[in-house]
Structure formats: C-alpha cells, structure tokens
Please model this.
Amino acid sequence: MDQVNQNSYCIIMAGGIGNRFWPVSNRRNPKQFSDILHTGKSFIRQTYERIAAIFPADRIYIVTGEEYEACTREQIPELPADNILKEPYGRNTATCIAYAAYKINGNNPEALMLIIPSDHFISNDLAYLQDLQEGMEFVKKQGGLLTVGITPTRAETEYGYIQMKNRNNSQKITAVKTFTEKPNPELAKAFYDSKEFLWNTGIFIWKTRDIIREFKTHMFDLHALFNTDCKLNTPDETAFIHNVYGQCHNISIDVGIMEKSQNVYVLKGQFGWSDVGTWHAFHALCEKDGEGNVTHSDKILLNESRNCIVHVPEDKYVIVQGVDDLIIAEKDNYLMVCHRKDENKIKHFEKSFRKP
Amino acid sequence: MDQVNQNSYCIIMAGGIGNRFWPVSNRRNPKQFSDILHTGKSFIRQTYERIAAIFPADRIYIVTGEEYEACTREQIPELPADNILKEPYGRNTATCIAYAAYKINGNNPEALMLIIPSDHFISNDLAYLQDLQEGMEFVKKQGGLLTVGITPTRAETEYGYIQMKNRNNSQKITAVKTFTEKPNPELAKAFYDSKEFLWNTGIFIWKTRDIIREFKTHMFDLHALFNTDCKLNTPDETAFIHNVYGQCHNISIDVGIMEKSQNVYVLKGQFGWSDVGTWHAFHALCEKDGEGNVTHSDKILLNESRNCIVHVPEDKYVIVQGVDDLIIAEKDNYLMVCHRKDENKIKHFEKSFRKP
Model:
C-alpha cells in the first residue's frame, strides 16, 4: 500500500462519550477507548493502526476531550504529543473539524485532510484504505467536499443518509443531492427501497482551504472565531481554544456545512462498516447463538432466552433464564437491564445517578 | 417471659444451602448466614437472639455442615463450641434431628426438644415464644409429637400442609390427620378453601425418648445406626457421626416419621411466619413500590417496570428499564436474570458452573 503524499493529513475524531452504550461506555471511559467488541484492542487503537498503514505518525492528529489526553497517549504512544488536539468540552463535529482545519492550514496551506471517526467498526481494511486513497486523489485533483457512503443493507433508523444525484451513475464517486439525519422508520424504508441513498459514515476528505472557504460562507461566526487574532500553532493555542470553544455553538458538520454546500460528493465505500453506535448495531454486528443471543464468554449461560445481549466484565458469571430481547450490561459497578424496545432511553441513564 | 425448665433444649437446624435463592444464597454462604431481608442481621443470628430470650446458651444446639462451623461461631460467639453439631454432609431433617435427639438423650433421658429452622422469617416474637412455651407445656404433660402450623393466607404451592383431624376444634392444639408435602396448584386451592389445613412451619416439639421410640418404630435402620455402639458425647463422636452419615438415607422427618406416627398434634401458631424459601415468598414478604417492585437501595432505579425483584450488593448501581416479572440478583460476581415464571429452575443454577 502506497503512503499518502506529504500534504495529506489524517484527523481522528475522538470526542463524544458513547452514552448510548451506557454503562459499558461512560464519561470516564468512553466507547472509543473501550474494547466493546472484545477484539483485544480499543476502537481508537484499531483506527490508528489501520490508518498508520498509509499515514506517518506526525501527520495523524487526534481531536479529543482534554480529560482523555492521558488515555490517548497511553493507548497510542507512537503519536507525537503535539498531535493531540484537546477540546475543553465537546462542541460537535463542525467545531472539532474547524479546529483541525485552521490549525493544519496555518502550517500548510496546501494541506488535504482525511477525517475519520475513532469508534467505528471496519472490515476489509485493504478495501477501506484503497477507497480513502482514491478519495484523496479525487479531492487533490478537483477539490470539493467528499464524503464516504456505504450501500445500505437494511432500513436502519440510527444512521444518517446521503442521497446521490444520479443513482444510475456507474462511477464510484458521484455528486450529492441531500443529507438527511436519522430518519423515522417509514422514511428509512423509503430511502432503502429507492436505492438512491447511502449510509453516512462520517468520513470526510477535503483540502483545508476548501473547507475554510465553506466555513466562511455557511458558518461565518465560527470562521470569525478561528480566524480573528488566531493563536493556533503558538504557545497561546490552549488559551485561544478555550476562548473559541466558550463562544461557539454545538453543531454538526453535516448540518453546518454538508447540507448547505453545493460542492459535495460521495464515494461508495467497498468495505464493511458499522458505527457500532447502539446496542442494536452491536447486536447486528456480532455473532449470535441459535437463539439470536450475543455474549462474549463461556461464563455467560442463556437458557430459554432469545435475542438478548449480555455484556459484562470478563470474570463475571451470569445466568439468564426465560427472557427475550434484553440488554444486560455491566461496568464499574453499574448494571443495566433494559428491554431492547427502550434502547433509545439508554443515553439518559448516566445522568440518573448524581456523581457517585 | 419465663425461662424454660432445665430439661428443655432448643435445636436450631442450619443445614441446607438455600439454592432456590441462588446466587444470593450459595454453597459458600447459605441463606441462613445471610441477611437477605436487609435487616442488619443474618437469619440464624435473628433466630438465635429470638430463642435466647427463653433458653440459656448452653441448652441451645445448632446442627450445621462441618464447613459452616467457623461461620456459626463468628455469627453466634455466645454459643458454647460443643453445642455446634457438625454434619459431614446434609442428610435431610430426619438424620439431623436423630443426631441431636440421641446425643441429648444420652446426657439427659428426661429431655424435651424444641426444633426450629434457622432461616425463617418470624414476626411478633412475643406470640411466637408464648406459642412455643405453650407447646412445650403440652408435650411435657402428655408426650406425643407436636408440630406448629400457621393458618394459610393463600393457596401457596411451596409449603407443606398439615390437616387437622377436626377443624372445628376450638382448642389451640389439635390432633393431626395427614401431612402433605408441597401440593400442586389445584390441591393447594382445595386445601386453602377447606380450612382444614395449616402450613407446616418445620417447628417440632417432643421428648427425646418419644422421638427415639418413633425412630425405632418407623425408621429402624436409622435407629440402629445411632443406637449401636454409640459414641455420641465421647471423644469419638466425630468419627462415629461420619460413619453414621455415610450409611444413612436422605429423608425428611415429615416423610420418615410425621406421616406415619399415630401420635401427632399441631399447635395453631399466632405469629407471623414465612419460610422465605423462594424469591416468590421473598417478594410476598417485602415492601413493594407502586408497581410491585421489591428493591433495597436508592441506588436501584426501576423505570416502566413491574413486579420485579432486584437484590444486589449494597454498593451496586442498577437501572432496570421496561421489563416485568424479573428476578435480578447478584452476589460474589455471579449475576442471575430470571423470569419469575421460571423460578423453580433456580435451584439447579449453582451446578451450572463447575467450581469456578
């Protein structure tokens, strides 16, 4: 696999606390630093190793919360310390991407950015890397905002969707008509049936100068915050970032830029992908027993039970008897037993306990 | 409350491992040594304190497994060490009672025994002690085998039943017609409706010489084992007991004696009682929230859930969402999630894990 050229940078987004996976993912130990799939490596470690096949360490950046700096350095000791961009608090992907874009552009106005989430499941790494290189070649030649989509295999309501301008276009990269956030079930089914839509992986490729032009056009407040008396790449960077983050809105790159820009493309990814964003996605991804149950240890016994997920510490013994459709999850002395129909309530559970 | 006379002895039966309460009760820490009801004291400690109001410590005996001697001494330091009768393995109540009867009779042929379980819930201690004293007076005067029954409040299938010879008998103590072990639901309803039946509490009162005569008549093998070359109350008692227990059958006093003897009486107990033998009995006994849930800590939250039991270590945080009729129980790194309809399977769960 060829290395990327010297103007290419990779940004790994590692904000977020994965609260839809509570209690296994929580504020102290978010999903991206966890090994929820029991592979032996955390999501972020796997993401780093995958991308390090084509990027040198000094051109990989990780954007994460200040409080996760130690954890990031521990899990990825190869990364130069300066390549961890620390957010004082989460302000969603538009802010996160702006931070990286303005900083890198300050050092290299010819820069091209590949932005990838830290906590997704990818299968077929070779196809993944080939797709990304193809995408970077495309952007290098003709600019624009390139996203990576995945052909849907079900009417999933937990993913964002990207509509292609021409679904019969046989080209791998096509222009984008619309972006849609998580649809309701009817809409998801219509999207799936139409074959015009791809799942939005949250992977983006563009030149820093192009995304900065888009910020200037569609999110001028944010542009002004980063562009006025800019202290990025100086000893005052931390104070500058605290000030900027204190003033900017919580807004996603999809809503802030992608839905508005006229210059958006999507590449049809050929790799296997899941955002592993919910227990439902986790269940869909994992190997199941004959009754549809997902577990990870022979210390877990399920009797006359169906379609359950049991995710507990490795040394725990569990018997589940006579139940269907339960998520049973434990971590750090927190236990959750939740019917799968109520999965959308899990994200609120962490708040139920005041700082224990 | 008067003390009992010098010929009266109390035997607390503390064998059994309470496997219908797994994992909260288990082989290493059986129910009788646990504080399942969160009262601050174990069942056996409460049983001891209750009976110590009328018995001196040197005439209280506890029969339990060899492996629970240390636990018994720790929980009841007042008890003379020699008053712990150690069984090499459980051989049911007939054997347990025979051990105590032959041993005490060897020291005092005029002895009268009160036999009580170690792991039952009793309310109204005063009524309980008055009933027991009344029963002991009865037996002292006219001999016979006296049991204590409780007027049923529901058609419970998990209790044994005692049929009175004459239900219109206004006397507190009446002759017994039949003993029945746990009935099926139809039979339990017929028993309950007839008003001729009382619940069998497993409390017995008799003179040692009378129960020995009954053993000789109805369980001659067992009598021969204890009566031949008897080494009870000698330095060879332990070896003798190992030999006896190695040869005797697993049989309850109800089946071995009570169902056969022609000289059985029952006293209608006036106290509150539950054998707390199952999670169902536990649920019936405990205070419930508006949705019928039983918990014991404000660290346990139940949302949109009904008729559940949650019993976990005191420091554990739990959220239960959108489920009905579950038993969620944890102890010593063992977790059980069991639908209440399958409660009768719990007793087999401990065997599911080979010595972890």
